[in-house]
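Would you mind writing out a protein's amino acid sequence and the numbers that encode its backbone to help me picture the idea?
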Amino acid sequence: MTINLPSLREHPEDIPLLANHFIKKSSQRSKKAVSGISKEAMEVLIRYHWPGNIRQLENVIERAVALTTNTVLLPSDISEDLHQEEAAGFSTPSKTLFTLEEMKRQYIEQILEQTSGNQSKAAEVLGINRKTLARLSKRWEHKDESS
């Protein structure tokens, strides 16, 4: 049985409801008092041309909740990539196509950069174990050395 999950850009009207649900879920998980999202930050989410499905939105919200010091998410809490019309490397067919492994690596490296290399915080944002993150980093490091 195949289940087709349409990209989020096909249903932008769902973004506010989903974003608020993910804020509540992420706030409870991280034990942070983030109660909502500003109108301006919501506009950033709605304007973004989502290449993925709701899991991508969930990851963006989890990251924002984990990194914010505010009680309401502001545009500055939303990844800078979403403030642009399309995120680099994740958009149109005219750009280079990446394997899933390459995209995963780029995303993880981006989160590590945004958390100033703090693997524990990056693992929390990514929703993975810190040891898993270290293992992935080591695997990519070995591939780079052998190239």
Summary: The two ends are 40 Å apart (CA to CA).
